Each structure stands twice: as C-alpha cells, then as structure tokens.
Description:
Layout: E1 4-8, H1 12-24, E2 29-34, H2 48-51, H3 65-72, E3 75-78, E4 80-86, E5 91-96, E6 102-106, E7 109-112, E8 116-118, E9 131-132, H4 137-149, E10 154-158, H5 162-174, E11 179-184, H6 195-207, E12 211-214, E13 218-221, E14 225-228, E15 233-235, E16 238-241, E17 245-247, H7 250-254, E18 278-280, E19 287-288, E20 295-296, H8 301-315, E21 329-333, E22 336-342, H9 345-351, E23 355-360, E24 375-382, E25 388-395, H10 399-411, H11 416-420, H12 436-448, E26 454-455, H13 460-465, E27 469-472, H14 476-480, E28 488-489, E29 508-511, H15 516-527, E30 533-536, H16 539-554
Helix pairs in contact: 1-8, 6-16
Amino acid sequence: MTRKILVVGGVAGGxxxxxxxxxxxESAEIIMFEKGPHVxxxxxxxxxxxxxxxxxxxxxxxxxPEIFKKRFxxxxxxxxxxxxxxxDKKTIIVKDLITKKEYEEAYDKLILSPGANxxxxxxxxxxxxxxxxxxxxxxxDKLNKYVKNNNIKDIAVIGGGFIGVEIVENLKxxxxxFNITLIEASNQIMxxxxxxxxxxxxxxxxxxxxxxxxxxxxxxxxxxNIKLFSGKExxxxxxxxxxxxxxxxxxxxEAGLEIGETxxxxxxxxxxxxxxxxxxxxxxxxxxxxxxxxxxxxxxxxPAQRQAxxxxxxxxxxxxxxxxxxxxSCVKLFDLNVASTGLTEKDAKNAGIPYDFVYIIPGDxxxxxxxxSPLHFKLIYEVPTGKILGAQAVGKGNATKRIDVIATxxxxxxxxxxLKELELCYAPAFNTxxxxxxxxxxxxxxxxxxxxxxxxxxxxxxxxxxxxxxIDVRERKEYEAGHLINAINIPLSELRERISxxxxxxxxxxxxxxxxRSYYAIMALQNMGFxxxxxxxxxxxxxxxxxxxxxxxxxxxxxxxxxxxx
Length: 566
C-alpha cells in the first residue's frame, strides 16, 4: 500500500526528511509545503549576499520545486501555507498564498519542520519600511536592494548573536564607508563564548570601525535614527533586528500537540510528537542536552538534518540512537575565526557542575612559519573527573578544527587523559607537533592534579588595584614595551640569580606573554621550596585583550602601560 507523507516546511529539516524518505521508499507519495517562495535555500549563507560573496540572491536557492520533482519525485509546493491540522481526520488545511484558496490534503504520516520566527521587540517603529528581519532569501534580497537603492550610509543592527554579527561583517565588507552600529542589550555579543574570550571579538569590532554598544537597548525607531534606553540617539536609515528567534509552534499548539518546557514542540527520542503519526524536527522542537541533562532548543542546521534523517528512519522501522546535543557552532568575524562547543563557564555554573578551565594562547602553527598567529583556546572540564565539558577558540588560524576535535571528545565522553593521548596529524604548515588541544589537556591535568595554581585574566585588575605582588618573567625589552603598572620584571633568564627578591610570606602572581614561561618559572621556584605561586592564565596577551574594550569605552584607568596584542 502506498504511503502518503506530508512535510510542513521546505528548508533544512523538511527537505532533508523528504529526501531521506524517498531513498527509503520509492513508492511513497511525498508532498512538501513551504509558505515562502523557495525551498531548500541556504539559511546560513544569507548574510554573505550583502557583501557580494554570493553575488545573486538566486544562488542562495539550492534546489527548486522542479528539481525536487525530477530528481526525487517529490512534489514541493511553494507559497502554500499549512494553516490547520485535523488530527482526527488525518488531514491538513492548506492555503495557496497566490490564489488565496484553501484546500484539504490527507496524510498517513506528517512531518513538521516549520522553523523559527525572528523575535520582534515591542518597540515603537518596528513596523517602519526601513526596518528588516532576516529569515529567508526574500528578506535578504529586500534588505540588500534597499541599502543600495537608497544610498544608505548609517545602519543599525540590533542583536549581537550569530545573525547580527554576520550581518555587521558582511555589510562592512560590502562598503567600508557604511557607518554601522551594533547594539546588544547584554554585556557581550556572542553568548556562546565566555566574557574573557569575547573581548577579543569586541576589539575586532572596534578595530574594523564598528560602533559597538553594549548594555543598552532600543526604545524607539525613528525614520532616520534610533533612540536607546540610555538616551543616546544613533543615526540609522536602515535597521536590522536580529535579537533571536522563537520556535514556530502555532500550528502544533492549535492541533493540541504537546509543547515542551522550553516552548518548543515536545518530541521523543525518535522525534515523534504526542501524536503517533506526526513527527517534528528542526528549530521548532525541544531537544535533550547531553551534558546538562536538561531540555533545550538549538536552532542549528546540522542538528536539524540529523533529526530529519532519524525521523524518516523511525517511520520505516530503522533504529536510531539519540545522543542529545552539545551545541557546536562557528562564525567568521572579519580576520577572526570563532568556534565553540559544549558548555561555557557560565553554562557550567548555571548547571551546578563543578569545573575548572584552561586558557592558553599557543601558536596556531609552527612559530617560524610565515602565517603563524596566536590561537586563543579555552577548555572547560569537570572536577574531579577531568571529563571535557566544552571549549572555545578564537584566532586567525584554524579554530574550527580544534573545536571539532573537542566536540568529538565530548560526544565520546572523553576526559583530559583521553585528549592528552589523542594522536593528530602534524606538519608545520598545519599545526604544531603538540597540537593546542593536546597542550590544553596537559595544562588541565596539571591543574587538576595540583601541580600548580592559576588565576584568570578577569581577576588581574583586582590584583593590580590591591597592589598584589606580580612578577613579569618576560625579557627586559618585552617588559619595557608594555607591562602591568605594578609588575616587577624578573626575566626567566635571571630568575635563579634573583630568588631573594621573591617573597614567601604572601601570594606571588607570575605572567609572561602567554603563560608558558611563567609556568616554567613556577615549576623552578616550587622545586626551590616556594608554595605561594600562581600563574596568570592568558598572561599579558590575555590581559591586554580582556581590558581593552572596557578601557576604551569607559576611559577608566588602565592597568597596563601599553597594550600588546601580538
């Protein structure tokens, strides 16, 4: 008997489910409904159209209804919105948005992949014609044409998440003369990073001419400016709202399907809803977090495609192992590559998981190679087990490779010991013989085993203001080029001759450029009987990057004589 399977939503989750079903069942009748004019378009590439990296908006469309029909024998109906589910009759009501006519379609199985909608703040002026949200190809094309055709100079982007950051970058790359303001209500952009790591991104924004405004919010959008809660007025002839998304659950709610505690559609481990004939996948559903053991929502394309395959497989009796999600993501911001996976420090705190972390700044590749650059790498692990919880990487080099390794380790329940022994490929042009992930594991094990103690960069200002005893073990020329205002310079090369200058009756904090030489100094001193030593993780590079943005915007007294970012 031929099955009739209907799919609501024709982008990542819906299109993937439909294609997988066809591979499993050549005889099934498959119809996919999409209320927009396009199916199977690249959501993640939408901002790249603004910079011209993807020159034509049509190139964002990966597959047309005609190709779906010819290649997969799947009927894709665009501009057709599913407005009701009749669960008792196993039918849906569809509205053709072109003809305005409604019709009924029966199903044996139904897959919901309606995605998520942009969150629109309750702010006066949000409905003005120069205010945009970005959800599909039509939206990005409309924004791009508006900016170009109206000779726009001042643009405001509201929201510092993935979409906001990518729009800012691509608008700036499109026209260096644009005056772009990014406004974020919290104290940082990109909440997938911890506050210490995100300061690197804040500096990059400033360096590239972006007016970055944090801890402020929009209260009114006027025709040529926006007014902020602080009283500031920011010129803006175009405004893009990118403060987040919320799951599209209206159809599911009205059909009486169960909604989860996070507001997404509740599904079981096979992505079956509370109705045995209806599945749901993608941005609209609630998922299980592998590490925190809690329900969450994760609007990312990769998980959506895996969910789609799992739902289709279950429909045909193929077993599926649901491993949960960990939240792996990446973004490019001008010259920086940014990636993260698993838990941040704040996530671990909120989950009540005892943890510690490693913050290292090794070279991305061998130091004598011409393209070598610092890689800021933070590894979070559980105490006392050493189980890996998460990681963040920022740098000009290959951040995503390192985070992919950590994501794999997390999914395999790996520990610092496992990471230490991981054998990775090496050549000077690609990495270092001791890859940064191996290096991070070694440092983590030293901390876990009490080999040495550390303090993070975010404690350094307090140490300086309290006149703590700080030793800078860099060479004299490095020290003279910029140092902490109260640090004493005892170069590692002179350490053994100047032991008498180091007190044993108070805490002593050591740093260098990136924490490696200061670690060598601590090990030597501990072997001489010192037990009052702390390594400053991140050292001078990390301190300068952590302090820079807030120094710049507040005008507060600097704790360094001169910044060093190299």
